[in-house]
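Summarise this fold before class:
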Amino acid sequence: MRVDKAKIRNSEESKLPKSSKSSRGSVYTSDFRSEYYNIQVEKLIPFKNQSRKYFDQESIEGLAKTIQEHGIRQPLTVLPSGIKEGFFEVVSGERRLRAAKFAGLNVVPCIIIHDQKQAEEIAIIENIQRKDLHPIELGGAYKNLLDLSICDSAQKIADKLGVHKSAVIESLSLLDLDEGTKNRLIESQIKNRNLLRELCRVDNHNERKLLIDVYLNNKAEQGAQKKALKKVGLRTKAHILNIAFDTTGFVIEKNKINELDELKKAELRVILDNLLGE
């Protein structure tokens, strides 16, 4: 992207707060042309319908170092705020804004748009295209497409974005989880597909909490357990479940599975889900 100095329409300039008119220019790409303004960071607030809830601080600090060395190479896209007069909502580029603040910048380049529906679509599509977006955040973005009548079905969303319909439905179903569970999954960045599916099948909040606890404990202890077992060269075994397959179908022997407490049963459920998902 090339950024050049250029004149800009006075009618557009008059809409900016006086403190924001520090400089202006134009942005050109092969298929896009638009004016941009350098707007003070204190005048920028998150977009009201932002799907992304989690921002990795380490990643932002890394981006801040790049910005300190090379500046912001792609302007943010902003919309005049309907919430706070004289402010702008960041439709695209909140991560860049956070990094710019961390880097100590006072102003950032911004492209101003005025179409609310266009802003919604830009924000949603940009979020969906991010690989690190949590499935719950992705579900929120899909829901916005439906709520704004940009798409009228899961199939239309799948066709528009080039994804499988089943993936769209799965992400939308995660929105039915209670807020506490959703917040914990996002904050812990738990994206295990099998665990998320299991949580959707469970109605009880305490059981959901137990499943997440087991998953996190298992993940944290797995490496340590492997090292310890390798060091001693043995482990105590107790067969609790045998599964075989013959011409008549599956043959299952439960053995001592009924002796497991609820925590161990939940752990076993997660392990089996992981095995089936491999």
